[in-house]
Structures are given as structure tokens and as C-alpha cells.
Amino acid sequence: MCERYYINTELRILSRNINNYFINYGNNKKVDKMTGSGAWIIAYIAENGYRDVFQRDLEKEFDITRSTASKNVDLLVENGFIVRTPVDYDARLKKLVLTEKAKEVFKIMRSDRATLEEQMLRGFSDEEKKQLRGFLKRLASNLDTEEDL
After folding, report:
1. Residue 28 falls within a domain, yes or no?
2. How many CB atoms lie within 10 A of CB 32?
3. pLDDT for 91-126, tens place per residue?
4. Residue 135 located in a structural domain
5. Domain residue limits at 102
6. What total of structural domains would you count in the chain?
7. Which of 53, 102, 106, 139 has the least CB density, counted as fewest CB within 10 Å?
């Protein structure tokens, strides 16, 4: 019997398992009205706290459309996780700032993410972890190009 191997199937299974981890084992019950996308956005803003983060940064980082980013940001604003704040150097721009509520949520999420990362990479050497990150980045990059489509 010939077994076909599809990396996209394996990645889909991995993605589902990661989502299930956060739902079943994480602290998400402590996180009120949080979507998966919202959690990633809060983490991105928190981890880039040394610089201003704008909606366009989310579009680029998560490879999402302007409307998708806008919907996610609107929901986070509506639920009290972030605020849009003007910047002095450009009246058109509004940076995204975490509220205290979001900062508390991020502390919980950071702990869950670290536990998940440790569990997923158990038994991998530092070199294997580096290679895996490189492979995953290359897979994503291959899908970003339209020349072969």
C-alpha cells in the first residue's frame, strides 16, 4: 500500500491540536470574550511594547487584509482590550495600545504559550528547533509568491 504524505494535512492537524490545547488545557476560561485572532494580536502588541504598533503592522505580521485587521481591532476595542491612540507626529495614525485588562490577559496567555512551546518541542535539539523554524518560514514564503500559481 502506498501512503501519500501531504505536509498541508500534517500542518492542519498541528494547527487544530494547538487550538484544542488552548481551549482544553490553557487558561482561556479566565480570558473573557477573546477570539484566537484577538489573542495573537494582543500578544504581538505586548511583545512589541518598545515601539508603536499600528493596524498596518498587524496586516503585515499576520498576512491579513485591511478589512480583516480592522474587524479584529474593532472587536478588541469593543471588548475593552485595546484603545486606538493618536500619535503626535501624524494626525492620521492611531497606535494600538493595550488596556490593563489586556495586559492581565497577556500574562495568562504568555504562560500558556510557553507551556505549549515546551511541550511541542520536547526532545528537539537546539539545531532541530532552528531548522524547523527555517522550514516553516520557507513554507510560508513559498505560498506568498504568485509566480508558480
Report:
1. no
2. 11
3. 889 999 999 999 988 888 888 888 889 999 999 999
4. no
5. 53-112
6. 1
7. 139
Tell me whether residue 19 is in a domain: no
- Is 90 part of a structural domain of the chain? yes
What is the Cα–Cα distance from 9 to 11, expressed in whole angstroms? Answer: 5
CA-to-CA distance for 117 and 34, rounded, in angstroms? Answer: 20
What DSSP letter does each residue of the chain carry, written as one string?
-PPP--HHHHHHHHHHHHHHHHHHTSSGGGSTT--HHHHHHHHHHHHTTTS---HHHHHHHHT--HHHHHHHHHHHHHTTSEEEEEETTEEEEEEEEE-HHHHHHHHHHHHHHHHHHHHHTTT--HHHHHHHHHHHHHHHHHHH--TT-
User: 80 to each of 9, 85, 99, 100, how far by Cα in Å?
Assistant: 36, 14, 7, 9
pLDDT tens, N- to C-terminus, the chain (149 residues): 456 678 888 888 888 888 777 777 766 655 655 667 888 899 899 998 889 999 999 999 988 999 999 999 999 999 999 999 999 998 889 999 999 999 988 888 888 888 889 999 999 999 999 999 999 989 888 887 655 55
